[in-house]
Amino acid sequence: MNLGEKIKSLRKEKNISQETLANHLGLSFQAVSKWETGVTMPDVSMIPAIAYYFGISTDELFDYSRYETEKNVEAIVDEYSKYWGKSERPENPKMCEKVLREGLKKYPGNDILLNCLICVLPVPERAAEVIEIAKALIASTKIDEVRLDSYRILAETYKATGEYTLCKDAIEHIPEIYFTKLYTAADLLEGEEGFMAAAKERSLAFEHLIYMLYKMAEYYVNTGEKGKAEKMYGEAKAVIEAMNGDYPTKWTRSLEDREEIVKIEEKLKNLIN
After folding, report:
1. Which burial class, exposed, middle or buried, applies to 221 when counting CB atoms under 10 A from its CB (0-12, 13-18, 19+)?
2. Using an 8 Å Cβ cutoff, are 114 and 48 in contact?
3. What pTM does this model have?
4. If 0-12 CB within 10 Å is exposed, 13-18 middle and 19+ buried, where does residue 151 land?
5. Using alpha carbons only, what angle is made at residue 127 by residues 146 and 99, rounded to the nearest 5 degrees?
6. Are residues 230 and 272 in contact, defined by beta-carbon separation less than 8 angstroms?
7. Which of 44, 56, 110, 133 is the S-S candidate for 60 at Cβ 3.0 to 4.6 Å?
């Protein structure tokens, strides 16, 4: 069954007209008619909303085997990751997008691929597209990580486009937690499983600590308290120096070889000079 036939079948099961479905999606009934007759396909950003309306996953909408889909999507994400590199933003965003777009042709509306896509699209240049996809994911995904990450990306996009109030609102939807899966796993699991979780959590905690010291220093500089800013820089420098000679694990790079850390340290240095 193709997508148009699937939408028609679901619509009949729900006993609604093309016009009712179209009104819910903010479209004309002619658009729905064209889908069902195979003349056109829904835009990729509409897929999560269609699945949500019918109360099914996007995989179910396309009649895919969940296990097979997850394996194939994981392979696409692995391919896309090759072009990401070590920096906070992809080293080759065009190739990242190309890989994801090709994946979305095979698995239109896949939550994981769409979530990766909005991390790649440049903001503010393509902010409208990022916001549209992020909102659709928030409304339809059944994957908690995707929904929360979409709120984070939505907040970042609003900040980049000067929508500070909307940025704050998006942040309010992200829960405040005082433990993580990795922390709990490191605490409770044994052997290599516990070690792996500890290594990953340590790596993240290190980066977060340095960045928070930078943000505090930035605030102190803006409030004219340069002495306190210098103290934050001193703390960050001491932590980074303490990691000299650190070694990588199977799951993490050497902490002193993290490009993002080098960039944050440089920003701190420029901030107080």
Report:
1. middle
2. yes
3. 0.69
4. buried
5. 60
6. yes
7. 56
Residues 6+ positions from 74 with CB-CB distance below 8 Å: none
For the chain, helix (H) and strand (E) counts, in that order, are: 15, 0
pLDDT(86) > 60:
no
Query: Which of 70-79, 85-94, 210-219 is least confident?
Result: 85-94
- Tokens linked to 158: 């609003």
Distance CA 68, CA 60 (A): 12
- Helices (DSSP H) in 89-225: which residue ranges? 93-106, 111-120, 127-140, 144-160, 164-172, 181-188, 191-222
Tens of pLDDT, residue by residue over 142-187, are 889 999 999 999 999 999 999 999 999 999 999 998 888 999 999 9
* CA nearest to 207, candidates 196, 215, 219: 215
Q: What is the pLDDT of residue 85?
A: 67
Asked, as a colleague might, if the bond just before 122 is cis with ω within 30 of 0, I would say: no
29-36 vs 3-14: helix crossing angle, rounded to 10: 120
From first CA to last CA, the distance across the chain in angstroms is: 64
50-80 per-position pLDDT tens digit: 988 898 887 778 775 566 778 899 999 999 9
141, two tokens: 């995904």
136: Cα within 13 Å, side-chain hemisphere: 26
Compare 66 and 22 and report the one with higher pLDDT: 22
Between CA 146 and CA 151 the distance in angstroms is 9
CA-to-CA distance for 111 and 118, rounded, in angstroms?
11
